[in-house]
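ligand=hypoxanthine
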Amino acid sequence: MDIALAVIGGTGVYRLAALEDVEARHVDTPYGAPSGPLRIGRLGEQRIAFLARHGEGHALPPHRVNYRANLHALKHIGAKRVLALNTVGGITDAYGPRVLACPDQLIDYTWGRESTFWDGEGEALHVDFGHPYSPMFRHKVLAAARVTGARVVDGGCYGATQGPRLETNAEIARMRRDGCDLVGMTGMPEAALARELGLEYACLAIVANWAAGCGDAQEITLAEVLDNVAAASAGLPELVAELARG
Ligand code: HPA
């Protein structure tokens, strides 16, 4: 049976507990090992692959994730569509803690990451990236959310920072001026690599906290982040199952 959907889980989402008949696949790639085993199982009638981006024990910080291996491994097992779950901070008013959002744009502030499969061999491939998230697949995510009753904000700009430290107030103020609504550390190069491989890719951002200097932001703690991610993720298995069907 084909893989109907691949899901990459971010901070606070290390398993899809609703998956049944799960088989762990240890895949190696020309780019090294992915973050952990691919857990392939069934959600309803559909086959779904799940990968914990940071490793199942959250051992890998954002700049150490082998994004190329992760995407290559998912492509290798036959995935065609990838839903990326990204834990983020909210910058603008509509993106407060516990909001789910499906951004339609991104700005890349990361540096020093392996950000392409075209690494000196053959002709460089300048993939089109004007719409970094697959428009059709985004619509399917939003449609699935409507069916299951999950509230998902349509659109927004994701700013990908290097981390692992959080941002200064001035950095977030600059990102706001740049047009960012959300800030996270793992959105790139993942989205671009997915495009290079011809995978359909969309981000479902889970807002864990107000970004530095925004909303009523206090000091950002891991406990707060995990608490908000858990609360905001309650409807995810249903949404993922519906998306896999469509
Ligand atoms: N900044 C960057 N990444 C994040 C944040 C943040 O405030 N919260 C969760 N991931």
